[in-house]
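Handout, tutorial session.
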Amino acid sequence: MRWIVRSTTVACAVALLAPTSPAAAASPISLTSGFYVNPNSAPATWARNNPGDSRSARIQSSIGSKPIARWFGNDANIGSTVANYAGAADGQDRLPVLVAYNIPNRDACGGHSGGGAGSAAAYRTWISGFAAGIGTKPAVVVVEPDALAAYGCLDQAKRDEMAGLLRYATEQLKAKAPNTYAYLDAGNAGWGTPSTMAYRLNEAGVANIRGFSVNVSNYYTTSQSATYANSINGFLGTARPFVIDTSRNANGRNSDPDGWCNPAGARLGVTAQTGGGAEMLLWVKTPGVSDGPCGIAPTTPAGTFDPDLAVRLITGT
């Protein structure tokens, strides 16, 4: 809880030196001492539960011991679940990265991770509890990966509903999680145009929060992703900070049209850090967790940890 003691000083410094951020009273980066490592991430749990497997030590060393975002979906007790997770990080003076992933019509284009809240009302209740669970604790939140990029796979009524729910999410995070940097997801360098994405970000309330995220669960290089994000900023009206998912992007994306789904030859990218061409480079997608029953993991469902996928990301094969 050391961040509470120094929060007044940091808040003054940020107000003088940092761009205006309506969502944050103080920088969660400055209020903590590095990124939180979740001891119960999928790779860490697998390694702990399989000590005799020849892959275990390597997976723990290269993946399980690193800061990785935790994804949160449908949960009747979302407020306490988030509070416990953010509290565990706060107890270590570390910065947790959370992903809000429960919007209705989730993964509308890919379908492998479909689902989400059963109604707009259910989502509003869920995201309100999610934000309240963070409260004043420092955190980073990536808001609803793929939601804005998938507009083209929805009819107009569902697009309008999604935009309204995303605006509500940004308002809740702004009001209830003042020491959180939240980022609306803006797809990736191969999905839509920067001008279209900028329009959608504005429509969805990006002005209420810190900024936007790119390349979540994808494989574009950091350079390609930064170029895409900077192009979006050229159309936003007011440029916003952005973060890049580098969890699996060291080798970039291959030429396969379906190269977003467990492609061969992918490799772990740089681990979580501030800077590096963005406000932060983060492991948002958990390395080793399948994108779906496709690519080099044709029988592994989306969201399932596969040790063979993990090892191939370590070796780049």
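The second record follows below. Compare its token runs with those of the first.
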Amino acid sequence: MRIVFKTDYMQDIRPWKDGYQLSLYLLLLAVAIAAPWWLDDFYLGELTNVLIWAIAGLGLMVLTGHTGQASLGHAAFLAIGCYANIILVEAGVPFMIAFPVAGLITGIIGATVAVPALRLHGIYLAIFTLAMSILMDDIIVLAEPITGGVAGKYAPPVGVFGFMVDRWGTPNEFYWLTLGVVVLVTLGYINLLRAPLGRSFIAVRDSEVSAQAMGVDISRTKTISFGLSCMVTGWAGALMGLYAGAFNNETFSVVISIQLLMMIVIGGLGSIHGAFFGAIVIGFLPQFLSISKEYVGAVFGGSTVAIPGLEFGIFGMILIAFILFEPMGIYGRWLKIRTWFELFPFYRKDMFKRQKSYLKTERLR
């Protein structure tokens, strides 16, 4: 049994539980920094893709996981961030200025769009955001002089502190750029949850009526949450455009929005770790399926022709399995395993018993 004895109130709000947990995070960061030396270019590119998906997952986690507002339209904000970044770079703005500005533009647009959706809840908000994602496809095509329309745009190499960074020409530098953004966004997210604003997000998620009774401005909190979520998602979209190299209106389809929502549900709603676990599943599952088909074909002598819809079918089955058997996601399962070892032999299943009914205060809505 491993028990952490707290002797100071600051221990309850610091980013890590104890020195042991901090050392594990630092070790993980050191391994991630050294990845270009022990991975080839292919797997380094896949790891970079996972990190970009993790940033997008963190953006959606702010809105859905910690504020409780479902969204099926975050692909639209990925597109806004991607196009805003490239357009600014093409206009001669340095990348180190264009990148954060692209996120700010996306956040402002997201907060503006959130205003008419403030009174929507649950499935109605999801339908509203889904319609917005579908509409973005037409907007990109109609704004052809700016966005390139169906022909799309190409992402040029960008300058970072005097170094030219390109997805294909300098994969190591592009990976470190993505890793740096991941670290900064994660640290910002951790500190947001420790702040009064982050606690307001969680209060709104748990019960809007109770949060309002405690003095939380519901409309303001939802608007800020939507804006922050879209800002982080815009940064992920900017990196996604640089990673793809070429993109058009079909790159950020509504399927991406659905994958994002599936990702944070599978990873674990309401936890920063869940965004990373979900990104690993989304990023590596297609490659795993491809390798598995080749292996099965080599062993049994069958064909390795691609099966239409296989990838999304597997995603769907995984999602259904988690909803039925582990609603807390991968991180929730890991949390139970870790707690079992920490509290053995005093662990009880009822510690993680699901609440099967709504709060009484929510029935007043």
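Points raised in discussion: Confidence is low (pLDDT under 50) at residues 355-361.
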